[in-house]
Amino acid sequence: MENSIQPCALLLLVGSDWRMTAVSANAAMIGGQRPADLIGQPLADLIGSKAIHSLRNRMSWLAKDESEVHDFGVQWGEVTLDVRASRERDQYLVEAELAVEPRLPDGIGMVRSMSDRLDGDDPLKLADQAMRQLCALTGFDRLGLTDLDGRVIVSAGRSEVDVPAGVDARMTAPYILADADAEPVAMVGEIGSAQLARASFRAADSGTRERLGGVGIAAAMSLPLRIDGKPVAAVHAYHNAPRRCSAERRSVAHLFAERLVARMARQGWKP
């Protein structure tokens, strides 16, 4: 379904004047207003003055269009959300997903600890160790590290779950499919396909759902990996039932995986 997102998250497109130009139809979960009535209104009217102050401070960290910022455990109205925001020229794309767990006690410490557990100098052995840790961290049945051509470098997890062929190897933003069978939520207002493509919770197309369903996969997660800003690989995770780990846990996994490929490159791995 075009111009739609998954129901576990809401999406807002905000202009430079901080007025909403597009919202997902489930934005009513925040303040009870009709989504069509929100178009052209200040974002502060929806999320409140305290939340908009925090969000604007976060967005000031955005250095370029490829950057993104996160805020975890944010209260918008009566709802607790994990927020991700990115910028494209004079517009902001804001995604807010329903929080599934409390804040981690020390996310950065977890990355350091996981990195310290990597042992040896063989790139493939390092990758195997890392994928096993990521399975435990995220709770997904199986994870695979792929190169830019979509070929699996290593994988770990339940042996009966395969990493499907034809994965998107050159994505520009993380993607999470929490439940392949969930009913998509339509967008209200004007949003371009290129903007929607940057959303982590855009609805999956029918081809993707059929491909995953054909091998018994109900949930998936993909994290693009870069070294010095250049795409080099990706982590793909799969589960045989609906699943979504917290945004903070995903951020820990993403940072750890990028440290992994940088270390692999130092040990001679050629992306």
Describe this structure in words.
- The structure is a single chain.
- With 271 residues, this protein is an alpha+beta fold.
- It is built from nine helices and twelve strands.
- Helix 6 runs antiparallel to helix 9.
- The chain is globular, with a radius of gyration of 19 Å.
- The two termini are 34 Å apart.
Order of helices and strands: EEEHHHHEEEHHEEEEHHEEH
- Rounded to an integer, what's the Rg over CA atoms? 19 Å
Count of separate DSSP helical elements: 9
Order of strands across the main sheet: 1-10-3-2-6-5-4
Question: Looking at CATH, which topology of the largest domain would you report?
Answer: Beta-Lactamase
CATH architecture of the largest domain: 2-Layer Sandwich
* Count of the separate structural domains: 2
Task: Detail the poorly predicted runs.
Answer: none
Share of helical residues: 25-40%
CATH C-level label of the largest domain:
Alpha Beta
Biggest sheet statistics: 7 strands, antiparallel
Percent range for β-strand residues:
25-35%
Count of individual beta strands: 12
Give the CA-CA distance, first to last residue: 34 Å
Categorize the overall geometry.
globular
Q: State the fourth-level CATH superfamily of the largest domain.
A: GAF domain
Overall residue-averaged pLDDT value:
90
